[in-house]
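As a next step, the fold was encoded as tokens, giving this record:
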Amino acid sequence: MTRQRDDIALWIGHSGEFCTDLDEGDGSRISSRADVPPPERDLPAADDAALRERASLLAAVRRTAAERGYRGATVEAVVRATRLPRHSFEAHFATIDDAILAAQGDFFLRLHRQVERSCSADRPWPEQVRAALTIVLDVVTEAEALARVLLVEAPSASFAGAQRQFEALDGFAALLCGGRRHYPQAVSLPDLTERTLVGGVASIITEGLLAEDTPTLRGLAPQLLELILTPYLGPELAHSASASDRPS
């Protein structure tokens, strides 16, 4: 568990990977300076310093938001934590809200990549779903304060935050559609099945974050896994596939 906590802390605390399709959209809704920049390998060498500076600022935004909450985070607290001048912050973000949106986008993109890797592994599809669900629950549990800001407070505070969250949920739903290829009986499922399943899981996670009771979410993992698998495998096989996760 200690190694897992260290891995999650490193994943959340580092900002070196950026940009997927979830960042594309109507740039008029979010300041361009709040968008996540392209991967480091795509940047000219001259931009390396700017990338490192931005990474430092985003790490400070995450720490500050986790400690103070969405409304308590300020530009002053972020620049104080980085020991950078205010104009350095303003070179990357128009406001503290833009900075938190960037941190939110980075969080979703990283989570999506982690889940996507678990879904592309060489193992049975139900095991891929179990691994993906475990990743999500581990992240929100180990980074509860930050997750509360990025998954609950930011979407409630602005249209842009809500839009980014909906885009992220759609991305997870698209990954779940892979189940239709593995189970022919699932081909005729309603088009909204995956979005409904992902939205339901997100709602339960949100409830846990609001109640400051994320450890309980891990105990719900078997039920959540069975819920997700049932439309594809059927009730009996879904229950059997989730049985190993249930307390004996």
